[in-house]
Amino acid sequence: MKAWITYKGGKTVLEEVPLPKMLPDDVLVESLWISICASDANKFVDLTGDLKKTVFGHEFAGRIVGVGENVNKALIGQTVVGEEHYPCLQCSSCLEGKFDRCQKEGFLGWYKSGNPKDWLRNGAFAEFVSIHQCCAKPTQGIEKFNFFPSFAEPLGNTVKMERIVSEKSGRVPETLAIWGGCGAQALYMVPYFASKGVKNFVLIYRGKSAMMYMKSCVIDLDANFYFVNSDDQQQLNRLKEELGQEDGFVSIELTGQKKLQKMVIEYASPRGKIFYYGLPAGGKKVMIPGTNMDIHTFVTGRTGIEELNLNSVKGIRVMGRDNESWEETVEALKTDGQLRKE
């Protein structure tokens, strides 16, 4: 098959490579719809860690064209969205069949799972991808509407984030601060949270062009938007007081940037909550202030720790999707697509 191979040093080349290997419970998916995630784009020019080369692409959908020996052949021909976090099959969660709770999961194109039989699996910038059958999520016809079904993956992150924020806060918060609030993931999160009832958004940004674009995207949403440069401490403090958040904001941290981490905690102080999602660029090790935990280790769940106590502020990790959020995401897309069609 053909695949775009990214090499260390920033070179990406179209090459002929062998078809992906498959385990007995895997399916082979032909890549038909592919979106490029900002995290992949960053790695094109800065392949991190021990990787010498890889095939990226983790926002995708396609058609099942082959199955492993333990998989029902009736699945061949089904259109599915790919879940890039795939199970190790050996941890306690996997042995209970809770594959979406895997403790040693792999990530297509980024790293292999904790299973010694596993390999670094290629992502969707290739003609075919092999994934565990639980990672092939039926699209239920969303591909018939006028958008890429590959968008289900990044929207799924938002759906899970909203559910976790609401559960941990006891309700949908009236006011929400988003660090990195004008970036790619925020373009999904802001309108979705607005549709769920958030009335005030403090969107903390660094780049002016991203801020201007976000402003154009939210103009018709029924909420109040406060755009603040992360260097404007006076404006940040004023909004904290004006919006009645003296106990601390409910915040989403999307940046992973070292220089902001202390500010993020202070803005949530004394008794707010921080929902960590963003990973540091370039694989850098960025510590969470007041802990011996770095952001990447915490957010990816490598230690099995779900929450941190940050001097009375709660730090909660949120990453990827689970079975519940996949179901919610597909239903949301079906509803939205049907409304636009009508």
From TrEMBL:
Family matches, as SUPFAM superfamilies: GroES-like
Keywords of the record: Metal-binding, Oxidoreductase, Zinc
GO molecular function, one term: zinc ion binding
Keyword Transit peptide: no
A Pfam family hit: ADH_N
Domain Alcohol dehydrogenase-like N-terminal: 24-133
InterPro entries per the UniProt record, alphabetical: ADH-like_N (IPR013154), ADH_Zn_CS (IPR002328), GroES-like_sf (IPR011032), Zn_alcohol_dh (IPR050129)
Protein name in the entry: Alcohol dehydrogenase-like N-terminal domain-containing protein
Organism of derivation: marine sediment metagenome
